[in-house]
Every structure is written in structure tokens, then in C-alpha cells.
């Protein structure tokens, strides 16, 4: 078929092209419960226009989805979010944000495939939704860091108390962040990359 005029299929935008200097790409997954800020983080830090699969929330989710603390949300991710960020000229991270509602968690298995590491985004108003998320990562052996997203009405706890409440090993980094801010989200990703590097170094024979 000959596509002409208004039927022409547009190609990728110039700013979406992978840098020619890129030599390595790493898949990172951003996980967490419903409404913790996963879509916001991917959107704030991605250097390309992020792909989102948000759909309007309907009455069908009433009584099924736990939206405590996020009652004002009108849309939710139903498949994934996708973005990209260049950490250096040679290293590129592909970011995959998972859906937060438990009824969509069956999609996580595919998103975890090939992931080098993960960011667990948490909301201190609803710490309990993070327990199963962390358990799933531990079951699959996916290294992760925990990012505490700062909500204006969210309680603040000492890092030691959060580590105890989430039953996290001492070596797992916990970092505070504001998922709306690019610099803050980038700091979270850099923390994860340093953690992954430390793990790889520790496994390398002397």
C-alpha cells in the first residue's frame, strides 16, 4: 500500500533516536503499589516522550482496587510505562513502569524478564502495599533499591524504621525522592546503578 499525505506513517522523532555513542543498554523496572508515582517518575526522568498505557478509572474497579490515599486519581496504568535515559554517552537505561493494581500484576512476569535491577517506589501513607511487591522481587532474585516518594501529607520516618518495617537487609539502599523532579528521579537511578555495580564487584573473583 502506498502511504501518502495524511496516510503517511510518521517515523520516530529526531530526539527519540538512540545516541550513536551508546554501547550498552540496561533494562530497569520501576515497581510499586497503586498511586505511588511510577508513571510520574518515568515521565519526569525520560529523555524521550514516554509511552504510557493509562486508562480512565471506571466503576468496575470499585471494591476491587485499593486506592486509599489516591482517591483523586482518575487514570491508572493497565500495561506498562516506558522511557529511556542516558546515564553516560555509552550507557542507556530502558525504564519499564509496572501497573500498580493487583489485578494487573500478572503482567509483571514479562516485564521482569531481562531486568538487571528494580526501583521499589513506596508511599509512607500505605507501606503495607509494598510488602508483596518486595516479596515478588526477592522471589525472582531481582536486585532493587527502595525510593521513598515524598507526598505532602505523607508521614516521615527514620530510614532505620522504614528498613525494619519493610524487613530489608542492611545492604539494600533506601533513598528519599520526589518523583516529579527529574534530578531527584535520576538520583534514584544512579543509586540503583551504584548498587548493581557493587554487587557485581563483590561477585568478581579476586
UniProtKB/TrEMBL annotation:
Keywords: GTP-binding, Hydrolase, Nucleotide-binding. It comes from the Bacteria. Signal peptide: none annotated. InterPro entries: Gliding_Motility_GTPase, Gpn, P-loop_NTPase. Belongs to the GPN-loop GTPase family. This is ATP/GTP-binding protein. It comes from Streptomyces gilvifuscus.
Amino acid at each position: 500500500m502506498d502511504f501518502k499525505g495524511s496516510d503517511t506513517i510518521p517515523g520516530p522523532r529526531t530526539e527519540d533516536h538512540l545516541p550513536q555513542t551508546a554501547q550498552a543498554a540496561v533494562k530497569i523496572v520501576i515497581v510499586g503499589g497503586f498511586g505511588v508515582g511510577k508513571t510520574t517518575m518515568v515521565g519526569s526522568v525520560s529523555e524521550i516522550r514516554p509511552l504510557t498505557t493509562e486508562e480512565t478509572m471506571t466503576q468496575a474497579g470499585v471494591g476491587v482496587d485499593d486506592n486509599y490515599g489516591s482517591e483523586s486519581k482518575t487514570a491508572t496504568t493497565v500495561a506498562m510505562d516506558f522511557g529511556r535515559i542516558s546515564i553516560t554517552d555509552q550507557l542507556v537505561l530502558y525504564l519499564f513502569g509496572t501497573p500498580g493494581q493487583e489485578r494487573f500484576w500478572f503482567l509483571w512476569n514479562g516485564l521482569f524478564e531481562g531486568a538487571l535491577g528494580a526501583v521499589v517506589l513506596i508511599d509512607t501513607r500505605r507501606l503495607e502495599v509494598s510488602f508483596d511487591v518486595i516479596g515478588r522481587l526477592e522471589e525472582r532474585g531481582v536486585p532493587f533499591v527502595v525510593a521513598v516518594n515524598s507526598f505532602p501529607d505523607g508521614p516521615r520516618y527514620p530510614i532505620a524504621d522504614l528498613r525494619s518495617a519493610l524487613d530489608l537487609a542492611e545492604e539494600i539502599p533506601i533513598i528519599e525522592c520526589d518523583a516529579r523532579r527529574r534530578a531527584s528521579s535520576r538520583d534514584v537511578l544512579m543509586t540503583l546503578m551504584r548498587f548493581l555495580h557493587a554487587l557485581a564487584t563483590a561477585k568478581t573473583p579476586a
